[in-house]
Write a structure and sequence with these properties.
heterodimer; A: alpha+beta; 7-stranded mixed β-sheet; 3 helices; 7 strands; globular; B: about 800 residues; mainly alpha; 41 helices; about 0% strand; flat
């Protein structure tokens, strides 16, 4: 599985998509600082990776819109799981944002109908947990790209499992 | 020649051998002489060798290319393990040991004696270790020095000067190649693949050194007789008593012979090794007493309370002093912070420190925490453990190297030499591996073993919301004393399926190990609060996620439902015409008001007979066409009226439709389909009458069309009206003589329909206005609230 780490500011996004028997998954994790760069990107398989990156970036807008759509009173109740951000002809994009405004985006191929919403939720939850573990590491400076092997392995396992 | 699939181990081994044989440095062809020597060294009968060379294609080619060489090597391995030589066996045989080659004994002896002095010096060290992963023990293996030249090229070790023995390292690192051997190499070993090649060579040596040989020559001689091709597995079986801890035991009879020679020279050291090897020597990650003491002292400098935590920031500063790259420190942290709480306990700290030390001395970090480094239980007696010679042994021969690395930690330098001299204690190793096993088994003895340990309060270990954590929270609530923890905990490990049970049990262990003397209740509360909040947050996240969005939607009134009454509207016309129509049910309620038009006597009568007999069909058809169709139809009484009407009608469609429309008329129906049918009926009626009543149908058609459109908005009453209107239509063509009357009747009806529809229209308009006003008011509210949303 190819692992891409971009120094772009942004969020992470996970994407899964099928191409024949191969499933593509791109997991990107975006930081929420003003610049919104990705902390972590992973996609499987690797074709059209740029396309996934682009998709993820554009989906950031939707994420932003969703989190700003809620009024101030709702800030606390705002759900972390954003659900399906938007479907396109090829894939579906799901979003998740943590309380620290770190965004996770998962892109899944539309032909992968077996992935249900709660499965996506559980994936986000796992991502969140792993991300928290990474954060707990005092040697990890928030804002660095995530190079934790444990995180990688969890993400890979998740993507493989989803495929 | 069939393609060959080699494992990494094999790949490396073969490439080294190839390099060795490639005396002309052609990189492509192994010189025949060398190759043949090598094959001879494989101790196979010459016909086998010939067969091999033939099979690999060298005879055909006349020389040994790389692929031929590899194939030949693999075939040698096949032959050595006693399997028949076949081309298919190349790829089909799994778990094939590497081919073994033996150099002339003279050379071995010579090298051996040269090596042994070192060995003797390091005697005590040897048995201990499975040489620290990757340490340059390569040098030590003398027996197969022929192949050894290859090894240094492979040996990535930064410093290979360590004279310390233990080729043991390599065997542990090649568990894949030697899968058969049961002894599981500790995690630290796995990371030394480069040494694997050496491992192939080393293992026999190692075995010589440790275990079985030790028992004495007698043992060896006993093994000499075994056939050359004896599988090393069986050999291994004979060694269990002495090689309790030995990882791969690939002793071929050949090596047995060699080792027997060697043992003469090294019997004493071997004995020592034997003794030591019986203890958990194969774990390079064990921490020696001195090391542990040192770590504890260091821990104290940061955190005086040995049972307390070192916060992550302090640990970060401390370990940054070691000048390791941040990435590696991060990895070390990941490995050692077992409970992922962002702080280090004493055990975690020791593990982390140990990893740092190991890393600084050139050992690669393991992928996962070695068992011996896992946070241990309180009652574990580490003092008698086999010291982890990994860093020590390696350093014994290269203190100089150690020093610069440790400059930021000067005290460490002192420690290593101390350790090096502490040979005596290494002979007193006891079997400690079992103790580490207890970690995973979640021994119930643990808690009771320390009755004084009052589990005062469960330690929130994990800050992150997780299933384990939730369970821990549960534990907290339930387990307030000693006894409780064990039972729920014992019950828990089986339950935990997803997260590693080990991790969980370790975590839970942490609970209890810290119970006693855990004085920092402050940290507890602070820990607990975020945890509970996290937990609640977690729960709330999951729980409210479906509702959250809905809540957001709650304040604004739900948008008006679109045409509930026309939910079944499949007609495009209906949809189109209802585009602007919001309130369906309301409409129906409202529109229901307009009185249902009583069935017209004329049309009913005229169509009565016809519809009467068609009613059944019509009903049936109707039921099929409009599901909602009602069997309320049975206003056959009405039909009778229509029968005459229907009889005059045309063909089946119309007739069927009429009865359908009639029942519609009779009972308020909400099916759009009825309207559809009416439209269709109207159309057909019109077409049917086309020829005769061309003009009249047109206006009728038009009227019908308008009615159709109105019908789109129409509710049952309207449909009733229209039904009646339609019902009257058939009558028109029927009798030319009655044209006028019929026309007039239809006109009248149409007028009535018009009024009804007009009334309906006005009401709908009224509703529309109301809704618009509502909408405006809502928008105003939204506008008012908007400023607040940006706060």
């Amino acid at each position: 599985m190819h692992q891409v780490r971009l120094q772009i500011k942004g969020s992470d996004e996970a994407r899964y998509s099928y191409s024949i028997d191969v499933q593509i998954s791109a997991v990107l994790q975006y930081w929420s600082k003003p610049k919104n760069y990705p902390l972590f990107i992973r996609s499987v398989p690797v074709q059209n990776e740029l396309k996934f990156h682009y998709t993820v970036h554009t989906s950031l807008d939707v994420v932003e819109e969703k989190i700003s759509a809620v009024g101030k009173a709702m800030a606390d109740q705002r759900e972390l799981y954003l659900g399906l951000l938007y479907p396109t002809e090829d894939y579906k994009v799901y979003g998740y944002v943590t309380n620290s405004k770190v965004k996770f985006v998962i892109v899944v191929d539309s032909s992968n109908t077996s992935l249900r919403d709660n499965e996506i939720r559980s994936m986000f939850r796992k991502l969140h947990n792993s991300f928290t573990d990474v954060m707990c590491n005092p040697f990890y400076n928030p804002g660095d790209t995530i190079q934790s092997k444990a995180f990688d392995s969890i993400v890979s396992a998740m993507m493989v499992q989803a495929s | 020649m069939e393609s060959l699939t080699l494992t990494d181990v094999e790949q490396k081994y073969y490439s080294d051998l190839f390099v060795y044989c490639d005396t002309d440095n052609t990189k492509k062809v192994a010189s025949n002489g060398k190759v043949l020597d090598l094959f001879r060294a494989a101790q196979l009968p010459s016909e086998v060798v010939l067969q091999i060379t033939e099979l690999c294609g060298a005879t055909r080619l006349g020389h040994f290319g790389r692929s031929q060489f590899y194939i030949a090597l693999k075939l040698i391995a096949v032959a050595q393990s006693g399997l028949p030589l076949r081309v298919e066996s190349l790829n089909s045989v799994k778990d094939l040991p590497l081919p073994r080659f033996v150099v002339a004994k003279n050379e071995q002896e010579a090298r051996h004696t040269a090596m042994y002095p070192d060995l003797e010096n390091q005697g005590p060290y040897q048995g201990v270790i499975p040489r620290p992963p990757g340490r340059g023990q390569v040098k030590k293996v003398s027996a197969h020095e022929v192949i050894q030249p290859c090894v240094p090229t492979v040996e990535p070790q930064p410093d290979t000067t360590s004279p310390v023995v233990s080729p043991h390292q390599s065997p542990p690192t090649s568990p894949h190649a030697w899968r058969k051997h049961k002894r599981q190499a500790s995690g630290g070993n796995v990371e030394r693949p480069p040494v694997v090649v050496a491992g192939a060579v080393w293992t026999p040596f190692r075995e010589v050194q440790s275990g079985p040989v030790v028992v004495g020559d007698g043992m060896w001689s006993a093994h000499s007789p075994p056939p050359v091709q004896e599988s090393w597995v069986s050999l291994k079986d004979t060694y269990p008593p002495s090689s309790s801890k030995m990882p791969p035991m690939h002793l071929s009879p050949v090596q047995v012979e060699n080792s027997s020679i060697r043992t003469v020279a090294s019997i004493t050291t071997a004995n020592e090794i034997q003794r030591q090897s019986s203890s958990g020597y194969d774990d390079p990650w064990k921490i020696t007493d001195e090391q542990r003491q040192y770590y504890i002292n260091q821990f104290k400098t940061i955190q005086p309370d040995l049972n307390g935590f070192i916060p992550g920031s302090a640990a970060k500063e401390f370990f940054t002093k070691s000048k390791l790259p941040i990435l590696e420190l991060s990895h070390i942290w990941e490995l050692s912070d077992f409970d992922k709480d962002g702080a280090l306990t004493l055990d975690e700290f020791c593990a982390a420190f140990h990893l740092v030390v190991a890393r600084k001395n050139g050992y690669d970090l393991p992928e996962k925490l070695p068992e011996s480094l896992m946070p241990k239980l309180i009652d574990l007696d580490d003092s008698a453990e086999v010291p982890d010679q990994a860093p020590d042994v390696g350093y014994s021969g290269s203190p100089v190297e150690v020093t610069p690395n440790k400059s930021p930690m000067p005290s460490l330098n002192q420690t290593w030499p101390d350790l090096n001299q502490g040979n005596e204690q290494w002979e007193t190793f006891s079997e400690r591996s079992s103790s580490s096993q207890t970690l995973t088994q979640f021994d119930s003895n643990i808690a009771p073993a320390d009755p004084d340990t009052a589990i005062v309060h469960p330690v929130p270990i994990r800050m992150t919301p997780s299933k384990i954590h939730m369970q821990e929270m549960e534990l907290k609530r339930t387990g307030s004393d000693h006894t409780h923890p064990t039972s729920p905990l014992m019950a828990k490990p089986p339950e935990l399926s997803e997260e590693t049970k080990l991790a969980t049990s370790m975590k839970i262990l942490m609970f209890f190990t810290k119970g006693d003397g855990y004085s920092s209740s402050d940290s507890y509360t602070s820990d607990q609060d975020p945890i509970t909040s996290v937990v609640t947050r977690q729960r709330s996240n999951s729980g409210t996620s479906p509702e959250g969005l809905k809540v957001a939607a709650a304040p604004p009134p739900p948008p008006p439902r679109p045409n509930a009454s026309h939910s079944r509207s499949s007609s495009l016309d209906m949809n189109r015409n209802f585009a602007a129509h919001p309130t369906g049910p309301q409409q129906s309620g409202v529109v229901a008001c307009p009185p249902a038009i009583p069935p017209r006597p004329l049309p009913t009568q005229t169509s009565g007979p016809h519809s009467g007999h068609r009613s059944d069909e019509g009903l049936a058809a109707h039921s099929t066409t409009s599901p909602q169709q009602i069997p309320e139809q049975p206003n056959f009484a009405d039909f009778s009226q229509f029968q005459a009407f229907a009889a005059s009608d045309q063909p089946s469609d119309d007739g069927e439709k009429h009865p359908e429309s009639l029942p519609v008329r009779a009972g308020p129906l909400r099916t759009v389909k009825i309207d559809n049918q009416e439209e269709r009926a109207a159309a057909t009626v019109n077409s049917a009458k086309g020829s005769i009543m061309a003009p009249p149908p047109k206006p009728v058609r038009r009227r019908l069309k308008s009615e159709d459109e109105l019908q789109d908005e129409a509710l049952p009453p309207k449909s009733n009206v229209i039904a009646t209107v339609l019902a009257t239509l058939p009558s028109i063509p029927r009798s030319v003589g009655k044209d006028k009357k019929a026309i007039q009747a239809s006109i009248r009806r149409n007028k009535e329909t018009n009024t009804v529809l007009a009334r309906l229209n006005s009401e709908l308009q009224q509703q529309l206005k109301d809704l618009l006003e509502e909408r405006i008011s809502l928008e105003v509210q939204l506008e008012q609230l908007r400023p607040f949303s940006h706060l």
